[in-house]
Amino acid sequence: MLELHDAPLAPLTTFRLGGPATRLVTATTDDEVIAVVRQADADGTPLLLIGGGSNLVVGDKGFDGTALVIATKGVTLDGTHLELAAGEVWTDAVARTVEAGLAGIECLAGIPGSAGATPIQNVGAYGQEVSSTITEVVAYDRTTGETVTLANEECAFSYRHSRFKADPERYVVLRVRFELEDAGGLSGPVKYAETARALGVEQGDRVPLAAARETVLGLRAGKGMVLDPEDHDTWSAGSFFTNPILTTAEFTAFRTRARQLLGPDTEPPAYPAGEGRTKTSAAWLIDKAGFTKGYGDGPARISTKHTLALTNRGHATTEDLLALAREVVAGVHRTFGITLTNEPVTVGVTL
Question: What span, in angstroms and rounded, lies between the C-alpha atoms of 123 and 94?
């Protein structure tokens, strides 16, 4: 294991923000991961888990404790069964399944981060979520001190949420297992309207796997959602806010307010989200509240490519970023009466 002290955390995050960790340990095996976690718990030392760093907002003062980088490796592909070590790079894993002719996660191409983070957030994009293909998650249970295997139904997956996110201090994901589909080199049914338009097909159609992956990568890149060190629009955590899910009464009130503000023909985005619930678009809310692409004149600004991404233009601090985020949250609430929720995990700071 590699161990450093007073080590900077900013280079380990896609925001490139945050102060140092008192102690930084990089673990490359499951046993090393468990040993570091057990020792921290036994000593009562605060512990921060880091995968790809694509979902972290670390405070400028850093982290007073042990930061553990999970850098485990291992890919097993047996027929349609896939197992990934938590430290595997997610984008590489998606590419590998596409090359193998297996469908199920091809539309999750280009999402930064590690495989172990995907079940925590129930990562999803362009009509796919990992919960649709995950069969089991192997994790270290900090409460019992044992390694456990949780079946899909035990993970309590929902929109950008899971059992692991609900109880972040309990589980350390070690391995993730998936069941993919052999559709003769074709993708899963294309569910997302934007993807279908870009592919020139109808929703529900299947396309060659490589075409689905490349199309999604192109769509993401156009929104600054594919990491590029030369492009400050990608110095972000991707979507900073989750799409609000509203009750029927809340959505009705929101639509009435939107029509009063924007005109009687205004129809806010609406997607079914379970019985009596409707999901709307955070990006739409942000834009219509006056926070357009490129908004801001400081070192932290809204992306020039997508209103849902807050970005570090190269010299920002975490406080700069949080000030912008708070401004957006307040503006959307003032305009539409809806409170946005941040998607990234905050460390040592709150929104």
Answer: 13
